[in-house]
Amino acid sequence: MKSKTADRIATGVFVAIAIIIVSILVGLFSYILINGFKHISWEFLTTPSSNIRAGGGIRDQLFNSFYILLITMIIAVPLGVGGGIYMAEYAKPGKITDTIRSCIEVLASLPSIVIGMFGLLVFVNVTGWGYTILGGALALTVFNLPVIVRVSEDSIRTVPRDLKEASLALGITHWHTIKTVLLPSAFPSILTGIILAAGRVFGEAAALLFTAGLSTPRLDYANWNPFSEQSPLNIFRPAETLAVHIWSVNTQGLIPDVEAVSNGSAAVLVISVLLFNLLARWIGSIITKKMTATK
Amino acid sequence: MQICIYPIMTYFRGVWCIMEKIIPAKERLIKSSKNRMDGELRGKILVILCAVIMISATISITIFLGTKGLQSFIKNGVSLIEFLTSTHWNPTNQANPEYGALPFIFGSFAVTFLAALIAAPLGIGAAIFMTEIAPSWGRKILQPVVELLVGIPSVVYGFIGLTVLVPFVRAHVGGLGFSLLSGMIVLSVMILPTITSIATDAMGSLPKYLREGSYALGATRWQTIRKVLIPAALPGLLTAVVLGMARAFGEALAVQMVIGNVRNLPSSILDASATLTTIITLNMGHTTYGSVENNTLWSMGLILLVMSFAFILLIRYLSSRRKL
Amino acid sequence: MVTTYLEKESTEQTIQTTVQLHMEHILKVHNLEIFYGEKRAVNGISMDIEKNSITALIGPSGCGKSTFLRSVNRMNDLIPGARAQGEIIYEDLNILSKQINVVALRKEIGMVFQKPNPFPKSIYENITHALKFSGLKKKSQLDELVEESLQKAALWDEVKDRLHKSALSLSGGQQQRLCIARTIAMKPTVMLLDEPSSALDPISNAKVEDLIVELKKDYSIIIVTHNMQQASRISDKTAFFLSGDLIEYDATEKIFTNPSVKKTEEYISGRFG
């Protein structure tokens, strides 16, 4: 009978662990959302932040976050998908492929602060750009690339071999087969992976502290010339993102309403990440529906 | 040119038979400049380029951070032994600057191990809950929970740690609140999803006959888990914990916001402390690039890089054991 | 050549005999060996494949018949570690040579697989996909060819109203005929069929068999099959493979009524395999 009692106790412990984890999540989310919603208003989202006075918004930070995300993805997606295609279709088993795999593994496990330092060294100092959106985006590319490579490789590998053979047997070249048969079939799962990666990039701060900087110049949203200093589109200007903003107001900020601003920003950040997550799930469910409907 | 190469084209001009006789098999079928597949080559070069960029990124990160990180020892003459073993960090003292990074190295390892100590049982427990106790509904609830926890940005964890956890510790446990304890708790929540999802994979990939065999012998579920499943999944579970620790070791901002950032060795878990990442985060911005103090920060970055390689080697060792 | 042409003008009976006498060989296989890494899957076989006829390859699983088939249009190139030695002569060229443009070769030697594998695109696009890649862009020509190939594959009447629906909405048998149609559209000279009807129900199977016999007029067909009745029903010549060796290769009637090798007889009468 002793073993039965032990079994019951163990089951209880495991259930308790599950409850603890769920309540951590529920606690975190409700704290963030309940505290944050009070501060989110149209005004909060559309006024620029203030360094000293209370009542600042997050307009520029929000724009910067999305803009850096966009630039990062423009660089990282082609590179990552290309790398994934190489790994799935061209890499032959051997030393070179093992080396590339190790490189991906190393890149994936680098702490983001280390990537930030690398960015500071190369994209800020060596190039002489200073803190720029482009430098931040390149650092985030390093951070993001291994994820996209893996997602693309896995997605391409799961495309049935039959389809590839069918295309090749019709006298279509390997590359054209990749472009017109493999990639379209793998596209939905690659997209899901990319959106999840985008969520991660959106919330990343450590890699941006020393690359995109902690400040934003005065922006003129009527100026859409990407080469102008005041244009929000200029990729050679410093840019503080939302995630960096939360950190900087909390650790070095002078504004009196730190909590209000950070609560609001944290809520916006979490909601955005949540939206990315939901979007990815939604696309994922559409795919499975399509797949099962046609079979 | 292509018209002559593909019989199908010529067929449509109504002269298929004639054309086929005109084009000898040699010209149709042997590789030559005429029927070379330019797109094929271009595509291949394109993706190889992507792979090359990845390799060169990794190599250049290693080289750049390696040389920069060694400068403090080579160029500035900071003693490596002092850097690694001394507890006195006083780089701004003009007369007698001291560069002992041991408190930060210790701080990094301390929070990492302490966080793993909490997160490992919780994460593995959750994995067992999902695979053994309630495989159907338990998984349906916990899986998205874990995914959402991964999604929360680290600054948000840090911010909540700062506004909720630190005051709580100050009021109910003692000390200033900014402490190893707070860092440990924040980190353990952050690495929990990593450990849980990998441990779940490890438990889930165990062959069915292990369970069935054990139940057939009359073992209870707990006995099966403890005596059969956990030992069988051990390398995978350890991999999960090591990956979690790797993440904890490299985490910067969340820890920095709650740990207090003092330069002394902590004497208790309630003392404020600092880690390699937090010192880098705090001081990189306001030290002069190229100064000795700045260079020692790069040396700390190099330690992070080396540790990240060490974690990879450890994981490789564990996964090689898994195959046996 | 000239005599064959002249004699074709005379009565049907004479055509039959003369064609057999003057049978052209589309493929000449000479001492073909195929390896997967260290393992030898095909042990130096030699056989000539006749033009405009159906050649059936039979034998138990793993006897090397599919491996042989896949080497004819170099599909084995996809398998890491696979290599072939010897010769397969097509139009005076050894198609196993490194100099061969595999892509151009596969346009002339088409292949249909065991499992129907239409692209997840529309029926129309399934056929035009490879044509467009080959440089055919005009819509009128594409339309014409889609209809022609679907007609030949006996699928036109069933799908003409839904050409732009997904090919995956078709039944298994229809999908397989679509796969044959898209191969026909490329105007190959040789068609390789790898157990094309083994995954189908009996009715679809019968349709595909009729289709194959019909196609003989225009193409030289090599078919791998597990189904002995199928081989005897549709093929002109049959080759029996056993553990990588070509045991016997002769007219189908001879193989099935009076095989000269004992192993063949045993296999055909169902004593093993």
TrEMBL record, chain A:
Pfam family membership, one: BPD_transp_1
Annotated coiled-coil segments of the chain: none
Segments traversing the membrane: 12-34, 66-88, 100-123, 129-149, 181-202, 266-287
Species annotation: Neobacillus novalis
Gene3D superfamilies per UniProt: MetI-like
Major location (coarse): membrane
Entry protein name: Phosphate transport system permease protein PstA
Domain of life: Bacteria
Gene Ontology biological-process entries: phosphate ion transmembrane transport
Protein's cellular compartments: Cell membrane
Record membrane topology: Multi-pass membrane protein
GO cellular component, one term: plasma membrane
InterPro entries: MetI-like (IPR000515), MetI-like_sf (IPR035906), Phosphate_PstA (IPR005672)
Keywords: Cell membrane, Membrane, Transmembrane, Transmembrane helix, Transport
Domain ABC transmembrane type-1: residue ranges: 62-280
SUPFAM superfamilies reported in the protein's UniProt record: MetI-like
NCBIfam families: 3a0107s02c
GO molecular function, one term: phosphate transmembrane transporter activity
Signal peptide from the UniProt entry: none
Record family assignment: Belongs to the binding-protein-dependent transport system permease family. CysTW subfamily.
